[in-house]
C-alpha cells in the first residue's frame, strides 16, 4: 500500500495548509486508543511490545544481564515483604516468629502491590506459609485450639 500525503488524505477536511508540519493541530479521538489499555492493545496487535522494548533498550535481558522482567517483579515484591516484616520471606527461609495477623497483613500488601486483591496470591512470590492448628506460622500466636476445648 502506497503512502499518501496527509494533506491529500484529508483534503476535504482541511481549510488551509501551513508550510511546515510542526504547526498542525490534530483534533478528534481514536476511541480504541484514547486510554492506556487501548493504546497498549493497539500497539501489541501490531507487534510492538512497549515494556519489553524498553528493557531490551537498556540491556535488561536474560542473555545480557541474566535477569528478566518477571524476575525483577519477584525481587521488588520480596523487598516489600522484607520492608514490612523486617525479615526474609519463607521462600528464602524466613517468616519465623510472625503472628498470623502480621503475616497476613504483609502478604495482602505484597499482593496488592502486584495487582491482586487476595493475600494468597503472594505465595507465588514469597513461598507458602503453613499455619499450625495451634497458632500462627510455624508455631506462632493463637489461631485455634490444639486439641481440647475449641471455645477457650
Key traits:
mainly alpha; 152 residues; disordered C terminus
Give a written overview of the molecule.
The protein has 152 residues and is mainly alpha-helical. Among the domains are: 29-66, no CATH class; 69-126, no CATH class. The protein contains six helices and no strands. The chain has helices at 6-9, 36-45, 50-57, 69-85, 100-113, 123-126. Helix 4 runs antiparallel to helix 5 (100-113). The N and C termini lie far apart (79 Å).
**Series of H and E elements:** HHHHHH
Helix content range = 25-40%
Q: Kindly report how far apart the N and C termini lie.
A: 79 Å
Mean pLDDT: 75
Silhouette: elongated
Chart the SSEs and their pairings.
Layout: H1 6-9, H2 36-45, H3 50-57, H4 69-85, H5 100-113, H6 123-126
Helix pairs in contact: 4-5
Task: Provide a short characterization of the protein structure.
The protein is built from 6 helices and no strands. The protein has 152 residues and is an all-alpha fold. Among the domains are: 29-66, no CATH class; 69-126, no CATH class.
Amino acid at each position: 500500500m502506497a503512502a499518501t500525503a496527509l494533506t491529500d488524505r484529508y483534503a476535504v477536511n482541511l481549510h488551509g495548509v501551513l508550510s511546515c508540519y510542526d504547526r498542525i493541530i490534530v483534533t478528534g479521538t481514536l476511541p480504541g486508543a484514547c486510554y492506556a489499555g487501548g493504546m497498549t492493545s493497539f500497539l501489541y496487535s501490531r507487534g510492538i511490545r512497549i515494556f519489553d522494548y524498553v528493557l531490551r533498550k537498556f540491556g535488561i535481558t536474560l542473555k545480557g544481564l541474566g535477569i528478566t522482567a518477571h524476575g525483577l517483579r519477584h525481587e521488588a515484591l520480596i523487598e516489600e515483604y522484607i520492608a514490612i516484616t523486617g525479615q526474609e520471606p519463607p521462600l528464602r527461609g524466613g517468616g519465623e516468629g510472625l503472628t498470623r495477623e502480621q503475616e497476613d497483613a504483609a502478604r495482602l500488601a505484597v499482593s496488592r502491590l502486584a495487582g491482586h486483591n487476595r493475600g494468597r496470591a503472594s505465595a507465588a512470590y514469597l513461598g507458602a506459609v503453613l499455619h499450625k492448628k495451634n497458632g500462627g506460622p510455624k508455631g506462632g500466636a493463637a489461631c485455634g485450639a490444639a486439641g481440647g476445648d475449641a471455645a477457650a
